[in-house]
Amino acid sequence: MPTAVVTGAGGGLGRAIAGRLARDGHAVAVFDIDGAGAQATCDGIGDEGGSARAYVVDLRDVSAIDTAMRDADAALGPVQVLVNNAAIFPAGPVLDVTAGDYDDVIAVNQRAYFFAAQAAARLMRTAGRGGAIVNIGSITQHGGWSELVPYAVTKGAAAALTRALATELGPFEIRVNCVAPGAFPTRAEEMQGDLEAYSKRIIDSQALKRRGELDDVAAAVSFLAGPESSFITGQTLNVDGGWIMA
Ligand SMILES: NC(=O)c1ccc[n+]([C@@H]2O[C@H](COP(=O)([O-])OP(=O)(O)OC[C@H]3O[C@@H](n4cnc5c(N)ncnc54)[C@H](O)[C@@H]3O)[C@@H](O)[C@H]2O)c1
Q: What are phi and psi of 112, to 5 degrees?
């Protein structure tokens, strides 16, 4: 069975993506710093008859990413899909951001995306079997977004990384695309005060007048990870109910 590695799948969107890729026929390797969350995701997949393994990985540690990637390939099955999903999103005024805060956001949201892609692509290329990498971006890369500056920088980088990797890895039949979500109900919303007013603002911004569901993002990832998108690479797909139309 081919393996899909999903980073940050110990909860939120990553858990929904992991479940969907398992239903699509992948063994799933869940990379997360939160071991209990990662195990809960795997248990859920197991309950549905799928196969999954939890890896406690701090994505700030590049060598840990490589070790886990090679282990997943050997233990679960050939890595055919990587979803770079884990991210942190500290919010606060730009004038208060410290070098330590900034480095952490870059390490998780940007550097780990690169090195996870490198580790996966090495395996995909060696076996000559191709594969698909999906980077989770964000619509915050478009326009301005206050009090999220370091995060928005990394989400712009996810789209740039997608295009550059797609160009270099295309000759090896490795496709690289990006899914940029709008606003979804995960722990990202915990920082919002009045949830009802927040939801109304989101719906007012979208062309479609409902809140997005986690499975909306998982479906887009499933498409870009699977054979139906075999001639699509280097693209960013906004999954945002028609919020950004660029
Ligand atoms: N929720 C939204 O509305 C929204 C909107 C746009 C983009 N996104 C993107 O979707 C992705 C998932 O977001 P989410 O809302 O599900 O977040 P989340 O906080 O619910 O999940 C993120 C996961 O990443 C893990 N993680 C954090 N730091 C880690 C580290 N150092 N090593 C390993 N794992 C680590 C966390 O433990 C967690 O399980 C992110 O890339 C985010 O930028 C989310």
A: -65, -35
Q: Which two tokens stand for residue 144?
A: 């301005």
What is the atom index within ligand 1 of the atom nearest the CA of 212?
Answer: 3
Domains in the chain: boundaries: 3-239
What does the pLDDT look like over 94-121, one tens digit per residue?
A: 999 999 999 999 999 999 999 999 999 9
Q: What is the rounded CA–CA span in Å between residue 88 and residue 104?
A: 8
Q: Which residues pair with 54 in a beta bridge?
A: 30
**What is the reported pTM?**
0.98
136 lines ligand 1 (CB under 6 A): yes
- Closest to 176 (Cα-Cα) out of 161, 186, 157: 161
Best probe residue, ligand 1, of 184, 195, 205, 236 (max atoms within 8 Å of C-beta): 184
Pairing of strands 3-7, 131-136: unpaired
Hey, what CATH topology would domain 3-239 get?
Rossmann fold (3.40.50)
Summarised one tens digit per residue, pLDDT across range 231-241 is: 999 999 999 99
Measured between alpha carbons, how far is 240 from 243 in angstroms, rounded to an integer? 6
Beta-carbon count within 10 A of 166 CB: 19
- 95's tokens: 């004038």
